[in-house]
Amino acid sequence: MVKEQDEAMDITQETFVRVHRYLPSFKGDASFFTWTYRIATNLCLDSARRRARSERVEMDEGEAEIEAQMDPPSAALAGPQQAVLNTELKGKMEEALASLSPNHRAILLLREVDGLSYEELANVLGIRKGTVMSRLFHARLKMQRKLREYVGEEEGEP
Amino acid sequence: MMARCEESVPLLGPWIDGELEESDRAWLVDHVRGCDSCAQRKLLLEAQRSALREQISQRAEKIDLSRLSAVVLARIERERQRPNPWTALAVWLEEIWGARRLPISLATGAALAGVVAATFLLHRPPPPREQALVQLVSVDTVDFITQPGVVLQSGQTSIIWLTSDRTSQ
Hints:
heterodimer; A: mainly alpha; globular; B: mainly alpha; 70% helix; elongated
């Protein structure tokens, strides 16, 4: 969720320190797991937002993206899974991930890697379930678009 | 592009996430079975997930977490010995701001607008007619010996104002 490994280590430490510090105030409204995730995610988002401010990351979620999603997937990406998993593309995954806005990166990683349910995502990110679905949809879409750029799909498109 | 694809695309994600409503599941499965584009879109989402998991797992394996618990425990011990209320307050405010950014911004904006409006209303100059009335009034200070006061005279009207209600009765 953050770019630098040192930063990730600092946030991990800070998360556990805060969990210990605020444990007496933990009311049990959410699960301990969700509560801890929320602390960690907020720290990551704050850090990413500070960085994004200086890097001017694009955060719009335009309708045009939905139209882009409607285009038939190219052979390079939509074919067998090995097209996505090939070495060159894997190398670009990190780059594509880094290009997402902090909110999109957070929801994508929490869902795809950590496997949080929509309800858990809503609790961790402090948003409604409907917003979870919408944000996740756009995050996946942006990721796909970035990957398409990397595999040079524009050359194959009419 | 089939009309059904427009409805299908936003539901492919919830489908592979296992979050699809049962009412949508039947027609979506049926549609994807007969639509190559949507079947490929679904494959792409699954492939993207696999690639992400693999990528992040590989990165995570390289991170050395052996010192993490020692560092965290050392920090907690330091906090125990020197509790700093300002640090706790700063952290609390930071977390509240992170979690409730929009409502706090809206409330602050509304409060500022209220302060500006109140300042404007309270410092509005009196209407010209009131000013004229004040100018017509003549004021005499009256020493009632036991209770000081003033007499205001405006035309045929006299007002005697005393500093204590009890005396005026």
